[in-house]
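Example pasted here:
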Amino acid sequence: MTHNNSIEALFGTWDYVDGDNMDEYLKELGIGMMGRMMAKQVKSRLIITETDDKSALRTETTFKTTVLEFTPGVECNETTADRREFKGIIQFDDGKWIQTMHDKNGKLSMITRWIDEKYQKQIILECGTAEVHRLYRR
C-alpha cells in the first residue's frame, strides 16, 4: 500500500534494513555462486537526488559505489557494481518508481519502489520467476 503518492517522498538517503529471496533473483540474472555469496554480505545505502531535469540513484556499499543518472521516461544505461550492463526506462507512476531494465541478452528485470504507511521505502525486484522484497529506512 502506498502511503504517499508524491515521488518526492522517495528522494533522500535510505539504509538497508531487511530483505528476502535475493539469491533466487541473482540466479535469474545469471550471477554465479561467488557473486551471489558476496551480494548476501552487502548492506547498501541508497541516496536519491533530483536536479532540474535529471534524477540520480547512488548506491553505496562497502565494496563499491555506483550512480545511475536518468530522466524519467527516457531510455538510460546502467552498469551494476559487478559490471553488468542494462538498458531501460524509469517511470514515476502514482507514487511508485518503476524501473524496467533489459541486459545485453534481453533478460528483463523490474524494480518497483514506493513509500509505505510507516514512511519506509519498500522495493520489489522481479526477474523471471524470482521476486525479492527489500526494506529501507531513513
